[in-house]
Amino acid sequence: MTKKVRNINGISNNNCRCGSWLAHWEKFSGRKAVFCSEAGCANQAEAGGQVLRVGANDDNWYIIPLCKEHNALTGRAIEVIDATIFVPVDAEETCGSEGHGR
Ligand SMILES: [Zn+2]
Ligand SMILES: [Zn+2]
């Protein structure tokens, strides 16, 4: 089983206090990112990719672990494994609040 997402990296340059989106994903998922979420991809997770869920009636932006190759596919739809944990980008408002204005 897979889920379809659209890679929206680069639409916004927002960042947060976690240091990287991959660190952000680990912090809020409580997991260690090991492999790319793309179904059939065996590469290591090297970045937190910003994605939209396709066909889920959900406009929120999420972070998922991706390899460099899949993280670079901005604007493209990719299939991710069913067990993928979607961490909302909005969590940035919590983890990023102390950093504003510095
Ligand atoms: Zn964060
Ligand atoms: Zn990949």
Tell me about this structure.
By secondary structure, the protein is an alpha+beta fold. Helices cover 17% and strands 25% of the residues. β2 and β3 form a beta hairpin. The mean pLDDT is 88. The structure holds zinc ion (ZN) (2 copies). The site of one zinc ion has 6 residues, from α3.
Order of helices and strands: EHEEHEEH
What is the residue-mean pLDDT, rounded to a whole number? Answer: 88
Helix content: 10-25%
The major β-sheet equals: 5 strands, antiparallel
How many DSSP H or I helices? 3
**Number of domains as seen in the coordinates:** 1
Percent in strands: 25-35%
Q: Ranges with pLDDT <50 over ≥5 residues?
A: none
Distance between the termini: 44 Å
The main sheet orders its strands as: 4-1-2-3-5
Q: Which structural class fits the helix and strand makeup? A: alpha+beta
- Write down the Rg: 13 Å
Bound molecules: zinc ion
Shape: globular
Number of beta-strand segments? 5
How would you summarize what this structure contains?
The protein has 102 residues and is an alpha+beta fold. Helices cover 17% and strands 25% of the residues.
